[in-house]
């Protein structure tokens, strides 16, 4: 039988807990004592300045010497003798208008001009070709340069070229032309069309007159004169577009070293230049003087007919261009001197110097749209594009009157 019975409880202690407590150890570490310090510094600045003028008695003594001292002998007599003459000249100068409008230029001349671009074609530079002519397009953004030689007096068959640069192009490369037109002989003259920017008239060393069309990529030669009875026999050193009788029509005027001035019209049907008028310059009509401007009478031969009853008067200016009453002079040393005729001074208002010394400046041309830009060609094959300041290009009221007077004299 089962019976209830109370017995004592039995407890057993854990040996694992004791073993774990006995194996625990404590560790500790400490760094050395860190010392800190604070320091401050401050500088002291002091400025001492002082000025002092000369004593008043010293300045008075320098300006007004002692009257007790003896005057130089003869000084009083001299002043009395010239008193009337000096007063008379002073009154005369006060009434004179010789220096009316004269303004002293205190600015540095080097600041009046600045070089924007120095253009050069590598092939022409390697062959030692010279820049013979420059011209601006009617838009004022494209500059055309002709290459040839000016130091070769013999007949030459050496080829040359015509190069163009668009100055408004972002990727402008001054050392590489945008367009190169190869020409079998030296180009001696250039002139861009006043209305059509793609047309360029040129004169060659062989006596031919050519019109190039830059819009034609395959063959840019639009028309040319060729070697005929009516064409030039000598190098053509000047070409220009001139208005004809028909409104909007332009012809090409060409002048050669032989004294012949010819006017050509473009025959689109036949694709050639047709002679319209011819002029002859007699040697006796050229004055033997050093004047830069002279007037000559030319006999006209119209349509190759020997009728010499009509006379025409033309003005020639040698190496001179007038803008804002400016006179530009080219030198063999490569300098371009700009004279302002309104200042009445023999010294140049500005001087353009570029490249090596001894390389002559051969040609120049103003931009028709921007009169501040001037292109100068040299014998080293470079074309410099210079910017003139407003002091050299803006017209004063007096200069406008002078230009109007010159225009009226030429019209008469």
How would you explain this protein's 3D organization?
15% of the residues lie in helices and 33% in strands. It is α+β, with helices and mostly antiparallel strands. The protein contains six helices and 21 strands. It has one domain: Methylamine Dehydrogenase, Chain H (7 Propeller).
In summary, what is this structure?
The protein is an alpha+beta fold and 412 residues long.
Tags for this model:
412 residues, alpha+beta, Methylamine Dehydrogenase, Chain H, six-stranded antiparallel β-sheet, four-stranded antiparallel β-sheet, flat
Number of helices: 6
The largest pleated sheet is described as:
6 strands, antiparallel
Structural class: alpha+beta
Report the end-to-end length measured between terminal Cα atoms: 167 Å
CATH homologous superfamily grouping: YVTN repeat-like/Quinoprotein amine dehydrogenase
How many β strands by DSSP?
21
Trace the largest sheet across and list its strands: 10-11-12-13-14-15
**Overall shape:** flat
CATH level 1 name: Mainly Beta
């Amino acid at each position: 039988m089962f019976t209830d019975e109370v017995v004592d409880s039995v407890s057993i202690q854990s040996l694992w807990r004791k073993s774990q407590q006995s194996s625990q150890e404590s560790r500790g570490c400490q760094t050395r004592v860190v010392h800190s310090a604070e320091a401050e510094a401050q500088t002291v600045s002091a400025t001492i300045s002082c000025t002092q003028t000369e004593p008043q008695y010293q300045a008075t003594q320098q300006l007004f010497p002692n009257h007790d001292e003896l005057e130089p002998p003869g000084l009083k007599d001299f002043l009395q003798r010239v008193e009337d003459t000096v007063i008379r000249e002073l009154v005369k100068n006060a009434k004179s208008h010789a220096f009316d409008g004269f303004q002293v230029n205190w600015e540095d001349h080097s600041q009046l001009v600045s070089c924007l671009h120095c253009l050069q074609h590598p092939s022409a530079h390697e062959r030692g070709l010279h820049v013979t002519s420059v011209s601006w397009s009617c838009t004022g953004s494209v500059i055309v340069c002709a290459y040839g030689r000016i130091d070769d007096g013999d007949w030459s068959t050496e080829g040359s070229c015509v190069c163009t640069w668009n100055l408004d192009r972002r990727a402008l490369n001054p050392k590489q032309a945008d367009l190169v037109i190869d020409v079998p002989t030296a180009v001696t003259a250039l002139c861009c069309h006043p209305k059509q920017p793609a047309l360029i008239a040129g004169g060659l060393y062989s006596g031919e007159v050519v019109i190039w069309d830059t819009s034609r990529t395959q063959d840019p030669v639009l028309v040319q004169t060729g070697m005929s009875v009516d064409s030039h026999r000598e190098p053509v050193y000047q070409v220009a577009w001139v208005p004809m009788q028909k409104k909007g029509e332009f012809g090409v005027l060409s002048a050669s070293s032989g004294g012949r001035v010819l006017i050509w019209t473009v025959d689109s049907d036949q694709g050639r230049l047709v002679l319209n008028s011819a002029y002859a310059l007699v040697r006796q009509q050229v004055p033997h003087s050093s004047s830069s401007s002279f007037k000559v009478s030319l006999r006209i031969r119209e349509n190759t007919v020997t009728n010499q009853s009509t006379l025409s008067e033309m003005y020639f200016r040698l190496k001179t261009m007038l803008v804002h009453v400016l006179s530009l002079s080219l030198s063999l040393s490569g300098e371009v001197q700009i004279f302002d005729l309104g200042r009445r001074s023999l010294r140049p208002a500005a001087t353009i110097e570029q490249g090596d010394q001894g390389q002559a400046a051969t040609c120049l041309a103003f931009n028709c749209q921007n009169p501040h830009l001037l292109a100068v060609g040299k014998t080293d094959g470079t074309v410099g594009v210079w910017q003139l300041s407003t002091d050299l290009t803006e017209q004063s009221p007096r200069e406008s009157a002078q230009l109007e007077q010159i225009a009226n004299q030429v019209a008469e």
